[in-house]
Amino acid sequence: MPHILVAEDEEHLAYGIKFNLEAEGYAVTVVGDGQAALARFAADPPLDLVVLDLMLPGMSGYAVCEAIRARGSDVPVVMLTARTLVEDRIRGFDAGTDVYMQKPFDLEELLSVVRNLLVRRGRAERPAAEPAPRGMVCRFGDSEVNFDTWEAASRGRPVRLTSLEMKLLRYLVEHEGSVVSREELLKNVWGMTRAPATRTVDTFMFNLRKYFEADPSRPIHFLSVRGTGYRFVGDGHAAVASGRGPG
Predict the structure, then answer these.
(1) pTM here?
(2) Residue 162: helix, strand or coil by DSSP?
């Protein structure tokens, strides 16, 4: 049974979320501040997902999420906030948030987000001995990514990507060879209707280079185009298959 942490200081909202998540079959722990959230995160049993309010007493949701990522965890994080500015969403994504939901939110949407994040996490954690279903697979250099199962490997080692990193990588692969601007990526990957000045895209591209480039300082797959954006290049072409192995 997946175990979910709800960190929310509005008690009526926290226990409303808890009630509905438990009705879906999840185990749920509720805490009311950031320090308690981190303490529970470090305890057993391990968590499968975190629902995190932004404005927590003592320690913001940003800080909690950053601390979780600093510990090397890729546990899905859903951030809840009443803030509406694009800059707030950017800061949330930069902190490592997977999904950013504005209050008041639709309960069915929250449940759908939780359900899909857990399904994707389950696919990513499938034991190596269990055969993975074939899907959309991209191979480039010494790397392979299955976008259906959320499995990735580079130089023979598994790579754990967040949902946004996977979404960004897929967008680049689907537009291989084309120059895509930062504004285009913010709109189509991050869902931002206007593109503010931000280093978010550059930070995520740095991560992809770190995961997949033999020498991140001299990339051959994730290329910068000065003054414009980025371009993805496979081995002359990205080997993309749908339900097929190498040809």
Answers:
(1) 0.60
(2) coil
